[in-house]
Each structure stands twice: as C-alpha cells, then as structure tokens.
Amino acid sequence: MKTAILVGATGLIGNELSRRIPDDAHYEKLIVLVRRKIRLKHLHTQVHEVDFDKPETFAHLIQGNDLFCALGTTMKIAGSKENFRSVDHDLVLQIAEIALKNNINNFVMVSS
Questions:
Q1: 112: Cα separation from own chain's centroid
Q2: In terms of CB atoms within 10 Å, which of 4, 45, 51, 60 comes out highest?
Q3: DSSP state of 108
Q4: pLDDT: is 73 or 102 the higher one?
Q5: For the residues of 20-79, what is the DSSP string, one character each?
Q6: Are residues 62 and 95 in contact, defined by beta-carbon separation less than 8 angstroms?
Q7: Which residues contact 14 (CB under 8 A, 6 or more apart)?
Q8: Residue 84 exposed, middle or buried by CB count within 10 Å (0-12, 13-18, 19+)
Q9: What does the pLDDT read at residue 31?
Q10: Burial class for 48, CB neighbours closer than 10 Å (0-12, 13-18, 19+)
Q11: 73: how many CB neighbours lie within 10 A of its CB?
Q12: Whole-structure pTM over 0.85, yes or no?
C-alpha cells in the first residue's frame, strides 16, 4: 500500500483529488499540504497547514510514494506576473526538487 501527497487541495482539481485519492485502493494514506485550513473527513488523511513561502519548513512532510501537485493561482489573486510565476512555476519547482530529494516515486503536476 502506498502513501500519496497532495499539495494544493483547495482549488478545483485539488479538491477533487482530495476526495478521490482516499477511495483509491492503491493508497492507504493521504498527506495533504494546504495554505489555509480545510476539513477532510477521511480516516487515513492527514492535513497539514503550511507556509508555502518557506518550503524548507514542510519538506519533512513530503514522504511517501506519489505526489500530486495542484498548486496554482490567478493573475487577479496574484496581483502581478512576478507573483503569479512565483506560485505557478517557482513553488512547484521547489516542491518537485524536495520530492526528488525525498525519493518520491512519481510527481504529477496539474497546471492551467
């Protein structure tokens, strides 16, 4: 049995993944990393509220088999091209690098 990690569970895709992964027979555990509190009622799901501006503070939580990255923002929310790129590119790349260092088998990214 495997552990899945989901980064970004509050958007459209992340929310759907947070409901589907716990029902997938391939996974016994789901670790969810989010910016703000959410409530998930699955028995084998752990939700961690993290500061995405400091990936080094949550790198130890990225332990498992498969990581699903559904991070993203909009230009309206980001406020600038630089902030948009920071979330949709830079943060995703930092998390991928942590996943690689932590021997995550698969990194799946959803992006608009």
A1: 15
A2: 4
A3: E
A4: 102
A5: HGGG-TTEEEEEEEESS------TTEEEEE--TT-GGGTGGG--SSEEEE-----HHHH-
A6: yes
A7: 6, 7, 8, 68, 70, 71, 110
A8: middle
A9: 96
A10: exposed
A11: 18
A12: yes
2 and 26 Cβ atoms separated by less than 8 Å: yes
Hunting for tokens 């942590």 — which residue is that? 98
At 22-79, the pLDDT tens digits run: 999 999 999 999 988 887 777 789 999 999 999 999 999 999 999 999 998 777 887 8
Give residue 66's identity as a one-letter amino acid code.
Answer: D
The secondary structure element, H or E, covering residue 106 is: strand 106-109
- With 90 as the cut, is the pLDDT of residue 104 above it? yes
Per the CB < 8 A criterion, the answer to whether 63 and 102 are in contact is yes
Report the run of H or E that residue 81 belongs to, with start and end: helix 81-85
Structure token pair of residue 55 = 């990936």
Q: What's the rounded Cα separation, in Å, for the pair 22 and 101?
A: 25
